[in-house]
Specification:
The protein is an alpha+beta fold and about 300 residues long. It contains eleven helices and four strands; from the N terminus they run αααααααααβαββαβ. It has a four-stranded antiparallel β-sheet with strand order 2-3-1-4, covered by helices on one side. The longest helix is centred in the first third of the chain and has 29 residues. The relative contact order is 0.12.
């Protein structure tokens, strides 16, 4: 009987299937992200000493002066960053995913630097700095976006950035621009200013692509209609687009007349249809539309509660 109770307690302590699946999905995403970042770094940045900031760029400088592999240089400089992040940014919750990604990155970098030249001829694929800059920014941005979606980190200068943001409240994008921009200027002083100029282009592309991966491509539009024909607009939105609306009574600041503000969310592809439908109902309505980066709820993407932190 005692054995049975212990067995039940042990089984109850095991993580649920949903938790296991979410952990596996997260680490799979981390792995894909690190591979993309590593391959992009080796294929497009290392051969031409192109910098987009971060410890990856500083590791190019250390490797240049010491002869150590770039992966080892990255890991060596990253150790104090990981320790700092452990004590200031979440301890074990921060450490597990960061340690995994930060360890995998230099391993894949060293492996790719050895293997890719044997499979790709010529290597690097092009000497055109602009092409290398764009591809590094796009592929690296995809990897970075996936890394952040998986709630992971390479450690690196992101630790300092998050710490400064936590202490000062300064916008994180501003801190990244200052820190990475400083590193790009430093690499330009070592490797030449042309590479630094391309580095700023890469940093811009990198940021844009990362934001798109994190936030998704805008597919919906918020529609606001100021009208006196509330019932007509409500019915038209439902009949034509099967979308409900929210509304509230407002007062015109100049005329003092009572009107209604009607709000709904539709797919971008239906913008032209919405304008025509509202014009048919109330051609004197005042209409504004704005892009919505992400939309969740009934009729759109479902909200999924997390199974673990």
């Amino acid at each position: 009987m005692v054995i049975t109770q212990k067995s039940r307690r042990w089984q109850a302590s095991l993580p649920s299937r949903a938790v296991v699946e979410e952990v596996a999905h997260r680490y799979m995403m981390l792995t894909v992200a690190v591979v993309l970042l590593s391959v992009s770094f080796v294929s497009f940045q290392m051969p031409h000493n192109l910098s987009a900031g971060g410890l990856g760029s500083l590791s190019l400088i250390m490797s240049h002066y010491t002869g150590w592999t770039t992966g080892f240089s990255f890991w060596l400089m990253n150790v104090p960053m990981i320790i700092l992040g452990f004590f200031t940014l979440g301890r074990w919750q921060f450490l597990t995913r960061t340690l995994y990604a930060a360890t995998l990155f230099p391993l894949v970098v060293n492996f790719s630097a050895t293997v890719l030249p044997t499979f790709i001829d010529p290597f690097p694929m092009t000497d055109n700095l602009l092409l290398n800059t764009i591809y590094a920014g796009v592929i690296g941005g995809i990897g970075s976006g996936l890394l952040f979606k998986a709630k992971g980190s390479l450690g690196s200068t992101s630790v300092i950035t998050l710490l400064i943001q936590k202490r000062t409240g300064m916008p994180i994008t501003n801190i990244y621009f200052i820190s990475d921009g400083t590193i790009i200027i430093f690499t330009g002083w070592v490797f030449g200013w042309e590479a630094a100029l391309y580095g700023f282009v890469m940093l811009f592309v990198y940021g844009v692509v990362t934001d798109q991966i994190l936030e998704g491509v805008s597919r919906t539009v918020n529609v606001h209609v100021i009208t006196q024909n509330l019932d007509g607009v409500k019915q038209a939105m439902y009949d034509n687009f099967q979308k409900g609306v929210s509304y509230w009574e407002i007062t015109g600041g100049y005329t003092g007349e009572k009107r209604y503000m009607v709000m709904s969310t539709i797919m971008r592809s239906r913008i032209g249809d919405v304008k025509q439908v509202i014009a048919d109902v109330d051609d004197k309505a005042f209409v504004t539309m704005e892009m919505s980066q992400q939309t969740f709820g009934e009729g759109f993407s479902a909200l999924k509660p997390r199974t673990f932190r």
